[in-house]
Here is the input.
Amino acid sequence: MFEQFSIRADPPVEGFLHRAESPSSDGLVLTHGAGGNAQMPLLVALAEAFSGAGFTVLRCDLPFRQQRSFGPPRPGDAVRDREGLKNAVAAMRKLGSGNLRRLFVGGQSYGGRQASMLLAEDQVADGLLLLSYPLHAPSKPDQPRIQHLPQIKVPVMFVHGTHDPFGSIEEIESARKLIPGKTLLVPVEGAGHDLGFKGKSKRGALPLLVVEEFQRFFG
Here is the structure.
């Protein structure tokens, strides 16, 4: 079960909170890609799987999506989107009232990229979960988005489809070597950028696999 979650801030925090029946001391903020929102089936499935494992999970709409119900972010949106994520992290810490021992941030595609850039700038969380990291535009493999990766000092877990046009498994393997902390890559065989959650199709086993690998990796 989940509830609507809203915090007045600049930018505001808007999303859905999943409270675990048997909460651990871990929290997770999840956000969406450029074409989606917090109600993407992939995010819902992951939030349910993580909350089932004891995590308090907030899946949130980035500020650009709060302002426009459809369409991709504009070039000038990224800084404000990262501020929105930072506010979401702060809201989760306040919600936990000191009971959250660790807090993680993650997202799919654009959301994951902004989360990684936020943590490269400011270590506000204890780790990253990057789903379908958009290493480069499909037609521009010579322009990789890797400049900030050496500044990330927290552990990073990648979940990436073997048919993702935004970066091959080999390219992700190469990019994660730039991160000084420990990293993990979980390949999803046969999946594209949507990780098998396009439309009504779902990879039912994937969320539980992600949680299992996450817990093993972060301990």
Observations:
- The chain has one domain: 2-218.
- Residues 78-96 form the longest helix (19 residues).
- DSSP finds six helices and eight strands in the chain.
- The mean pLDDT is 95.
